[in-house]
Design brief:
The structure is a single chain. By secondary structure, the protein is mostly beta strands. It has one domain: Lipoxygenase-1 (Sandwich), CATH 2.60.60. It is built from two helices and 16 strands. It has helices spanning 82-87, 215-225, and strands spanning 3-4, 10-12, 14-16, 22-25, 28-35, 38-43, 49-54, 58-66, 72-75, 102-104, 122-127, 135-144, 155-164, 167-178, 188-197, 200-210. The strands form four sheets. It has a six-stranded mixed beta sheet, with no helix packed on it. The two termini are 30 Å apart. Bound molecules: calcium ion (2 copies). One calcium ion is lined by residues 34, 112, 117, 119, 121.
Length: 227
């Protein structure tokens, strides 16, 4: 049974059998984000309204922080302008972590146009056995490349599952961020973090909609405020 995470909840990554006995630890899994396109009421020419779909381009990114708090590695879109990044002091985007442990499935630019399809739109595969031992925190966050805020986006979910980006074998945990009026004006969301405590990896469902205007501001915010 998948764990339904609540905002702020922390879990360890122990796998349990149906009877509740521990069956090892989750080490290779996917972290996927699923979101919906907007539905907008448009006035019809001859009166009345019709519903129109509008694509929402969320970008899932990730930073991996070293235990010395000085260094970090990243997964964010290689399509972000490398010259603008260099000016702001950020390395170019890439889809694989330096240690090869995390891989991003690539950019989805629309979200689900026909309602929740149950599949994740952007996915990061994680192999905790390959993570550089000096890394002790891995943050997952999303930024909106289009203009809507999280009060408008009908649904945004993150989940951890065993399988591949195209095949879901076993869902371990899900975390639904329901659209909330308090998210007005907020275009970024820090979804959660994997963190190492006494040598064991755990997950914390953060779910904070933030005022960051882009992924670079989210990275600065995470490093400063989300230890
Ligand atoms: Ca995207
Ligand atoms: Ca989807």
């Amino acid at each position: 049974m998948a764990i339904n995470l609540q905002k702020g909840q922390r879990i360890d990554l122990t796998k349990k059998s149906a009877g509740g006995a521990a069956e090892g630890t989750l080490t290779r899994f996917c972290v996927g984000v699923n979101w919906g396109a907007l539905e907008i009421e448009k006035k019809r020419f001859f009166g009345g309204t019709k519903k129109v779909k509008k694509a929402v381009d969320l970008d899932l990114s990730c930073i991996l922080l070293y235990d010395d708090d000085q260094r970090w590695d990243h997964l964010y879109s290689p399509e972000y302008d490398p010259r603008a990044l260099a000016k702001a002091g950020f390395p170019p985007g890439k889809l694989i972590s330096r240690d090869g442990a995390l891989r991003h499935s690539g950019d989805d630019r629309t979200g689900d146009l026909d309602g929740d399809d149950g599949l994740d739109n952007e996915i990061i595969s994680v192999d905790l056995t390959r993570v550089d031992p000096q890394i002790d925190r891995i943050y997952f966050f999303i930024n909106n490349a289009t203009n809507e805020d999280f009060a408008q986006i009908p649904f945004a979910k993150i989940r951890m599952y065993e399988g591949t980006p195209t095949r879901v074998d076993n869902v371990y945990a899900t975390f639904d961020v329901v659209a909330d009026p308090s998210y007005r004006g907020r275009k970024s969301m820090i979804m959660g973090k994997l963190y190492k405590k006494n040598g064991a990896w755990k997950f914390n469902a953060i779910g904070d909609a933030t005022a960051d205007r882009n992924f670079a501001e989210s990275i600065v915010n995470i490093i400063r405020n989300y230890k």
